[in-house]
Amino acid sequence: ILQHLNMSKHTDSTAEVLLEKRGCAGVITLNRPKALNAFNLSMIRQIYPQLKTWEKDPETFLIIIKGTGGKAFCAGGDIRVITDAGKVGDRLAQDFFREEYTLNNAIGTCQKPYVALIDGITMGGGVGLSVHGHFRVATEKTVFAMPETAIGLFPDVGGGYFLPRLPGKIGYYLALTGFRLKGRDSQKAGIATHFVESEKLPALEKDLIALKSPSKENVADVLNSYHMKCKTDQEKQFVLDEHMDKINSLFSANSMEEIIQNLKQDGSPFALKQLETLNKMSPTSLKMTLRQLREGASMNLQDVLIMEYRLSQACMNGHDFYEGVRAVLIDKDQVPKWKPATLEEVTDEFVDNCFKSLGNSDLKL
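Structure tokens predicted for 3-hydroxyisobutyryl-CoA hydrolase (365 residues):
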């Protein structure tokens, strides 16, 4: 009966997530277009068991994940619900992060080819549902960002794993500033593996679904052929190309204070713009994030997610996450009052504590 219920869900256009077996593929469709396909705990609880089932099913050869509505793949997790829960000490504040990171890990370890069609806004938690899979297909509508430092959080969902592994110091730059990569730039930066015109996605999906018992190589061949045929913005220079030398030198410092110092000393228009951006971010978030990436650079995905779960709970027990969500998402005054208000006031001791084991409450993967 459960299997039947699962399979009949896709006929319900109001379901928040659609899970369908189509041809050789399991297809996950995030279906909250009005919320830019932001996901909640109930959606995670539907996707995770289905992903595990498809992974074991001999008749399912690949997994496709996409969003509806044409604006977003997924704008992230439903943050407001989490902060509401955190304020009153509701367990959801633990459960959400624990189950979200468990899903990120399942995607990162999935034995079947996993294809994310990141057409439109792909931020925060939406990156976690895509970047750890084998294939990420960007389009001219893709907008990638990890904007968490602006809301008193940190680039979680395995950001500590994939960001420091991007070329040079680009991941550190994206993590600290929340810079948005658009269209082909997301592929040039290494976030996406392929680039295809948005209007070609239905045909691409159809071709993938029609494959007969495909191997990972067969899936790659289809994606490669669409990628090679796509001429949009092919000649365009990577947006960060001219700044890469500066990013690599200025963002390679061991501490946030040094990065700020580097930017001030550099004094170029690019450096001053970054200073201005970093000055708006939560000082606590910036210090947590820099350390998260520096440590994550030499850890596996599981250990990174365990570390990030500790950080998520530190944020739930702190001040800045609630204040950031208030300023950016609720009151929208865009003027968060961070506590502490300066980098100097965020002590190493405080940051160390955020990374400490939670003992029995640690994430288990």
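The mean pLDDT is 96.
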